[in-house]
Amino acid sequence: MRSLAWLSRLMPDEYVASIYDIDLDALWRRGIRLILTDLDNTLVPWNHPDVPTELAAWLRDVNARGFHVCILSNNGEDRVGAFSKLCGIPAVSAAGKPKSRGFLQALRRFEMPPEAAAMIGDQLFTDIQGAKRLGMYAILVLPQHSVEWWGTKISRMAERVVLRRLEARGLRRPQVDSDRRRGND
Ligand SMILES: [Mg+2]
User: Can you tell which superkingdom this protein's organism belongs to (predicted)?
Assistant: First the structure.
């Protein structure tokens, strides 16, 4: 039974193809007021410098609905700060996910309890594990692109094994709607 306990700590509350598939009405009804989001391969492909039009529109929609949004990334300040400035969204860089420090820093900034926050990310061992540890709602998305940092490529191997076990426990891999996958250009 022990193995099931560690596995459940990695189980996302939702698994969707991309941020654009998240039901924002449902998040609001759930009491979520702060959206924390990973950057690379969640909002845009890894190290992608620009803000795609579709992402800018999504961020406007999220803000108009009354959510606070904050980028929470393990990438460095150069990369994260530049992107944050470009899209006008605050960010915590070098967050050290899955450690709690960066998550707590973001929660403090918006004076929100973890129950009022949702974390969106493409990696189980950083984004999802860190969020679940604090009792946050956790949303896993498919990586936006197959190009990744070498460290991520290694953790993906272990992640694939865990994802299979989570799928055996009911996690459903989202169908990719090809019209919606626009991050690859
Ligand atoms: Mg990522």
Answer: Bacteria
